[in-house]
């Protein structure tokens, strides 16, 4: 394990606190729920969007940095191999909760590492993991309807 | 640049643009009907795979094309059910389907052909229009193309005419802009949107088949390489009009063709820069440099009848 893991854990806790306990988090969620009402309440929509996108970009960059400096040590083209999309899906499936993000990210992580072992030990192609992952995403997205909420 | 090279450039631009044109037109209809169909990439990949396997197994590229259209239908139906009936987040379902298809086709390809196959797959035949094909320099380079290319262009023109001049076109536009009005006028919003997504699936199937049995006569894992996302970008670049989308696809095609043409002209530009070009253009377009965004108002919002 490298330093990336504890740093990630700390960031997750900070993000959870900021989102739920601070003024900034409240404003951010307000803009997400209803941009018009938020603007009426004096929250700048453009400002919130720019700050959140900048933060998202910074965290994404940090993820890439951890992958390279913590594990791979070699810069190759396409080194992220779909992790970005996994991250996007993990974030979307989490429905705005940090705990959900951690759960989804761990699920995808276990699937990936399990897939590599599966290919080495049992000779099952790792592509099967993508099939399972796709099925999970599609099922969860579709299941939102039955849980009476929109994902 | 000599005329011969220029003719080859135009010809290959068109050839590279065709999958984008087909998929982009399908996506345009789907988005106009109000469904942001992110699974174009997956549908194209399914199409490319099914066409290749179909043509290889039956020995007939035409049957391969038929199998491909049939194979993409369930994928399109899945997207339609998820995004309309189950009202799921359309970005999540699209990406989910793309991951699912990438995994499934890779898995199936390895099961059927083995890890590294150089199996020749029968491809669609070429055809050149009688008079145009005889033009001295351009005839051979520009009009000696796979027949699916001409068929695709005809379908795109027909789609444009239907969107512009028929009541079907009006209903499609309305389903994406003012679904409640469509519902009040007695037309089912769900039916229009289902049809839009399935049409997008049909067009993506053709686009995928063009890639595998029309252009390079083989299938490789994940061979669409983001072409589906580029088609979505083309719709945005074209401001949700069919003319704009077609122009954007041609532009992206030309940008891709430049990759192969510039080195033969002895112009030394890093290859990575050229690969970036279509995406850079798309990003500039999405960034609002190509004018104001004019997305259908209800795009991406599942319709809930009250």
Secondary structure elements and pairings:
The complex is a heterodimer of chains A (151) and B (306).
Chain A: H1 4-21, H2 23-33, H3 35-40, H4 45-72, H5 83-93, H6 98-121, H7 127-143
Helix pairs in contact in A: 1-2, 5-6, 6-7
Chain B: H1 3-32, H2 40-58, H3 61-85, H4 90-113, E1 126-127, H5 136-143, E2 145-146, H6 147-165, H7 167-177, H8 179-184, H9 189-216, H10 227-237, H11 242-264, H12 271-289
Antiparallel strand pairs in B: 1-2
Helix pairs in contact in B: 1-5, 1-6, 1-9, 1-10, 1-11, 2-3, 2-4, 2-9, 2-10, 3-4, 3-9, 6-7, 10-11, 10-12, 11-12
Low-confidence segments of chain B, given as residue ranges, are none
| SSE series of chain A | HHHHHHH
Q: Structural class of the secondary elements of chain A?
A: mainly alpha
Low-confidence stretches of chain A: none
Computed over alpha carbons, the radius of gyration of chain B is 19 Å
Number of domains of chain A: 2
**Which fold name is given in CATH as the topology of chain B?**
ABC transporter involved in vitamin B12 uptake, BtuC
CATH class of chain B: Mainly Alpha
Beta-strand content bin of chain A:
under 5%
Helix content of chain B: over 70%
Determine the N-to-C terminus distance of chain B. Answer: 62 Å
Strand arrangement in the largest pleated sheet of chain B? 1-2
Report the sheet with the most strands of chain A, covering strand number, pairing sense and barrel closure: none
Biggest chain pair contact, residues each? A-B, 27 and 25 residues
Count of extended strands of chain A: 0
- Label the overall shape of chain A: globular
Q: Work out the count of structural domains of chain B.
A: 1
Q: Quickly give the structural class of chain B.
A: mainly alpha
The second-level CATH architecture of chain B is: Orthogonal Bundle
User: Helical content of chain A, roughly?
Assistant: over 70%
